[in-house]
Amino acid sequence: MSNTTARSDDVSVLHPAIREKVTAIRDQLHQEDIPFEVFEAFRTPERQAKLQAKRPKVTWVGPWGSIHQYGLAVDFVLKINGKWSWDDRGPEAAYWTRMHELALENGMTPLYNKAGALIEKPHIQLKGVSARDLYKGHYPEGGDEAWAEYLGNLIDNWTGSPAAPVKPQNVAERPPLAPDVIAEMEDLVRGDTPGPEDKASTDPRFQKLHEFIKRWEGGFVDHPDDPGGATNMGITIGTLAEWRGTKVTVEDVRELSRSEADSIFRANYYSANRCGEMPERMAMVVYNCSVLSGRERAIEFVQQAFNNLGLLVDGKPLVVDGVLGRMTMSAIRGADPSILAEAFMDRQEDYLRQLDTFPVFGKGWLNRMAALREFVNTLQKGAGARPAIKMSVTDKQSDLELLIEKLIPGQDSGSREAMIRLLTETVRSDAGAKTPRSAVGTLLGLLTGAARERMGADTPVYDAATTISKGPDGKPPLTPINAALGETFGRAMNGKKSVTGIAGLLLTAFLPKLGVSGDIVNFVGQNSEALLTLFSLITGWGMFGKLDKAIRLMGMIDAVRKS
């Protein structure tokens, strides 16, 4: 078994001495709108040998002669309009200079020759290290398990020349079997040991999830609107060229074998994003997205979905940087896979709908996402942390409290809280949900009490003489509910509150979903919660007004009878 020759941009397994430095450099470059990305991080000795053999030369050192082999160097390359660029002329020249400045500020350095001239512009490495010392096992302090395990695997799988370097001391090693056990097992399997097989064909978990990918990544296509160009079984011409380490033709893509395609999928997407370490449901959605939208974007969607659910790792949300580091992997393993996978697919679908090519490929993408949701539901649910409702404590009055205080001033905090609970439940409840009679009575009592206070504490609310007679303007007096906010406003809204409230609720609920745009639609969408609360209150006020009118009518009837 040998290591891959594929390029890796995974910074999560780099030595901790540069892991955060690389992230800091990249983040600062992005803040300055300089489009550098990590092109290559850890590099296997097999890949180093392959690069050394290229003509014309792209490197002058062989296996274990590059700092890349020890996880202490990276290559930064410009990525402009989705394409890698090594151009260092014209306006781009300043970009490379700035990248090197940031490297030096963060304890890393570009490569210089003996004359002090800069060579290999993309390459930056930890200051003060040499490949000769590293080969002897003189590693920087602070190497963690992720780095040590990755380097240890490279060393274990290396069979070429020169001999592998000394392993890091903190590599977790499985203890050897006892000699008698070894002898017994060798007797049992002698002569029956199968030959080496391709990893993709012998990994049952990968094959289980890969069945979905094979179903949706069909045969050869070369669509003019597909930026990936010629593609076969989901492998683009660019991906195949990178995998083989040489230029390929459209015909090479057409003749791609199923076996090679599966190996590329497993190495470049499934293994590169460590799907084998994730719960099945998360492994499936991350793997599918890595194939469809890229490895880094898949990790960004994980981080965004996790944060959107309000989940935290070590008391903090995840940094959305597309890097599958310790925190992000802990989040994936610790969250409920069913909920996180669903939130992930929602985020991915939103992204697909925003792409310029959605009118061309959108129907197929959405069909694929629908099928993915069905397939994911057949996988193990798993267990983990579920989203929790967070409570924030503040002494600032909410919009609803301020509204109630204006409508009914002077109420104590207990009365206001009772009304807030009732109105909030009214807004959040399903249509037709029943409100408890006690709550209705409480609210009616508060409103009626406020109206009586406006009219005078000694004024009987349902005095028959008052209800039958007309006011000074010749119009019937307003009921206490309708008069709660004053004569002018009460008459303006008399008979219109229920209709206004219901119409407002319907518009607030459905206007943003009608597919129209404009300032009003944007305002409604941005303030939907406050508008729902306001129109619910107006609707409730109208309903209580009608109840008050009914009581008033009963008083009139009773007064007539007594007369």
Explain the overall architecture.
By secondary structure, the protein is an alpha+beta fold. The chain folds into three domains: 16-170, Muramoyl-pentapeptide Carboxypeptidase, domain 2; 199-376, Chitosanase, subunit A, domain 1 (Up-down Bundle); 399-562, no CATH class. Helix content is 53%, strand content 6%. It contains 24 helices and seven strands. The protein has helices at 16-31, 45-52, 92-105, 131-135, 145-157, 179-189, 199-202, 204-216, 237-244, 250-254, 258-271, 280-293, 295-308, 326-334, 337-353, 358-376, 399-407, 413-428, 437-455, 464-468, 487-493, 497-510, 519-526, 528-562; strands at residues 36-40, 73-80, 83-85, 108-112, 118-126, 231-232, 235-236. Strands 1, 2, 3, 4 and 5 form a five-stranded antiparallel beta sheet that branches. Strands 6-7 form a two-stranded antiparallel sheet. Helix 18 (413-428) packs across helix 19 (437-455). The longest helix has 35 residues, at 528-562. It is elongated, with a radius of gyration of 35 Å. Mean pLDDT is 76; it is low at 188-197, 389-400 and 422-472. InterPro entries: Lysozyme-like_dom_sf (IPR023346), TtsA-like_GH18_dom (IPR008565), Zn_M74/Hedgehog-like (IPR009045). It comes from Hoeflea halophila. Residues 212-294 form the TtsA-like Glycoside hydrolase family domain. This is Peptidoglycan L-alanyl-D-glutamate endopeptidase CwlK.
